[in-house]
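Milestone M4 deliverable, item 7.
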Amino acid sequence: MLGTVPSVLCPVVLHPDSVRHDPAAEIWIGLRTPGTETAERVTRIAESLADAGHPTVPARAHDDTILREVHSPELLDHLATLWQRWDDAGYPALGADRVVPYMFATDEVRHGLPPRVPSALHAQVSQYAYDTMTLVGPGSWEAIRGSIDAALTAVDLVVAGVPLAYALTRPPGHHATRAAYGGSCYLNNAAVAAAALRAGGHERVAIVDIDAHHGNGTQAIFYDRGDVLYASVHVDPGAGWFPHHIGFADETGRGAGAGANRNVPLAPGSDDDTWLAGVDQLAATSAAHGASALVVSLGVDAAADDPESPLQVTTSGYQRAGQLLAGLDLPTVAVQEGGYHLPTLGRLVAATLDGLARRPNG
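Output delivered:
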């Protein structure tokens, strides 16, 4: 039952810099609103998992080899230097205490002309950011890069034989594409974990995304590949939910990736039974894919109390979702995505890991 020590303890990989990112706010429909992706998320989750008996493992530094397979060098260099360049240029003194894009050079704006690199830093930002909600400030890069190290350390543990490892990644990552960031995500922790598992000897990997929102970034990164399955259950973007333009059921992959993408969009208000039926479909798709390793994008914002989605999943539902995925009996890396209701956040993650830890042969 919930609250008991799971049958297999799961190492919790954490980087101390994960709390340094402070977006301070979001700019949404032109309004400056309080940010929900706060450093306290890490504290609440870590405390709950420690209470459940899971050991903490410090993230180990890794080079950029895998990271640069997943993300463009231009995006990485931009994010690594952005805040310092912004500060040096004097924007904070003008009142711009966080980096926010202001013009988006869409294909229609360029009208077939080649992309240019703007001379103004405030215009360069929108080459890489695709929304106004995902702010950058002092300490952001350290947290972003630390999350990648946490994900890669969790992969190291699994490749070495640990059946399940969890990376407490913050900021989250599944909305980050190869060359752009948005949706409170900067680099794609789950995609990097999948690439590292492949480098560690797993030819076929499944990513199952149970966050309330579709992971458009992860889908985009692997959409043309058949070696990594992306499968997501999420609130229907057609009902008005982020990422709005992407995440529909007819998006099934392209070229070599045809059939290696599965989306299960759900109506707002969907409860445990509907959501778990979706998770079960993703588990079956993963088995049919022939994956030998699993990455779980572990968002808990589908919970009934979460302010960021209209889904109505319970704590018990999250535990059962973990059990469904544990039934695949695959080496598993879980990476933290969304989840914003601080009073319940930790126990929702603990419940999911409790389910994932109950291995069929454990």
